[in-house]
């Protein structure tokens, strides 16, 4: 007869984890981005296709330790990233997004938010909450984008690719939501490599577009915008800082996912659009509103990261409305165009 009898019920409660379990899990959740980053760095996801692969074979092919790989994957599997089958490790819909060739790949986005400097920044949250602002400039001696482009070139490349990955998810929805029938010229300010602008130009064949971004972003534009690209005849690529000047006269200026830095910079950039445009020109701020987002953990997490890197924020509806008005723009409305994006539509007044 056994000396020890189990008093545990292994069946999970339908009401979810207990507060103790939840808090313990949350406190160790940083294991997850660490494991995801490792998977990407060793290129594990790319090794698994439509059929499962035994762990020993994976470890051998990648030249990594099979036992540690198994432990790492055990953690990720508990979140639904990869699964174990009779034939070995297989993809789940979530782990498949880590493959570089997946049409919805988030490989670079995951690398971006798990960069070593991101791990260095998180402890600054305590100082930020005490002082009311981020301290990137003091820590690194320069504003975020200046430092990124000057000191972290590999990270810059990861960032630019990550923005294209995010744009792939949303740009059709943006292009379809815009009624540009009376519009001839469109400028995408801080448009990255121009994935969204290219999609908008494809959806609106009468339109001419200009991409404006910092030199490091436009050095390698979307293939469609290059001299030999399909949209070359209807597009221009301009290197410049919207904090100094926006050197384009256009009917519509778009700022997508850029005005989420320090509020003073946001007002400066918008005032430069007012200066560059004509009365009646439209200025669209496209952003993920933190108080109106179905993905509240994503929105609030990025909000905190922005606080620490650019002293920025994800805006509330009221907050972004106040900023556009401070810049001298007339607010026309705020419209949801994608679960993660709102368009704040404004006009340059007469
Ligand atoms: C979060 S990304 C968004 C990129 C793009 N709009 C998109 O949605 O994919 C912010 C962009 O702002 C650009 N940026 C930062 N400072 C800038 C400045 N002073 N002038 C113009 N662009 C700037 C960055 O290079 C980057 O491409």
TrEMBL record:
Domain O-methyltransferase C-terminal: 122-329
Keyword terms of this UniProt record: Methyltransferase, S-adenosyl-L-methionine, Transferase
One record GO biological process: methylation
SUPFAM superfamilies tied to this protein: S-adenosyl-L-methionine-dependent methyltransferases (SSF53335), Winged helix' DNA-binding domain (SSF46785)
Xref: InterPro entries: COMT-like (IPR016461), COMT_C (IPR001077), COMT_dimerisation (IPR012967), SAM-dependent_MTases_sf (IPR029063), WH-like_DNA-bd_sf (IPR036388), WH_DNA-bd_sf (IPR036390)
Residue stretches making up the O-methyltransferase dimerisation domain: 26-98
GO molecular function: O-methyltransferase activity; protein dimerization activity
PROSITE patterns found in the cross-reference section: SAM_OMT_II
UniProt xrefs under Gene3D superfamilies: 1.10.287.1350, Vaccinia Virus protein VP39, Winged helix-like DNA-binding domain superfamily/Winged helix DNA-binding domain
A Pfam cross-reference name: Methyltransf_2
Protein name: O-methyltransferase
């Amino acid at each position: 007869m056994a000396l020890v009898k189990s008093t545990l019920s292994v069946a999970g409660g339908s009401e979810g984890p207990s507060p103790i379990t939840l808090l313990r899990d949350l406190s160790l959740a940083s294991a997850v981005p660490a494991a995801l980053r490792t998977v990407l760095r060793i290129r594990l996801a790319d090794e698994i296709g439509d059929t499962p692969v035994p762990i020993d074979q994976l470890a051998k092919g990648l030249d990594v330790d099979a036992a540690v790989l198994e432990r790492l994957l055990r953690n990720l599997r508990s979140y639904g990233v990869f699964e174990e089958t009779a034939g070995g490790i297989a993809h789940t819909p979530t782990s498949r997004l880590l493959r570089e060739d997946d049409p919805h790949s988030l490989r670079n986005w995951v690398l971006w938010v798990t960069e070593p400097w991101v791990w260095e920044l998180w402890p600054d949250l305590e100082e930020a909450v005490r002082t009311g602002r981020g301290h990137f400039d003091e820590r690194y001696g320069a504003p975020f984008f200046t430092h990124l482009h000057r000191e972290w070139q590999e990270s810059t490349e990861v960032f630019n690719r990550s923005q294209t990955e995010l744009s792939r998810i949303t740009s059709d929805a943006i292009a379809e939501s815009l009624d540009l029938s009376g519009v001839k010229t469109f400028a995408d300010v801080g448009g990255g490599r121009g994935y969204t602008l290219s999609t908008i130009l494809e959806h609106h064949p009468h339109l001419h577009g200009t991409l404006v971004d910092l030199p490091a972003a436009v050095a390698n534009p979307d293939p469609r915008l290059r001299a030999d690209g399909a949209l070359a005849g209807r597009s221009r690529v301009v290197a410049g800082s919207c904090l100094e000047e926006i050197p384009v006269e256009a009917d519509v200026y778009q700022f997508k996912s850029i005005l989420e830095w320090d509020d003073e910079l946001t007002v400066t950039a918008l005032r430069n659009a007012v200066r560059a445009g004509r009365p009646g020109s439209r200025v669209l701020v496209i952003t993920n509103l933190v108080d109106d987002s179905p993905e509240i953990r994503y929105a609030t997490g990025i909000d905190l990261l922005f606080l620490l890197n650019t002293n920025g924020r994800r805006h509330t509806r009221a907050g972004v409305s106040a900023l556009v008005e401070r810049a001298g723009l007339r607010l026309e409305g705020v419209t949801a165009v994608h679960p993660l994006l709102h368009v704040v539509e404004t006009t340059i007044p007469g």
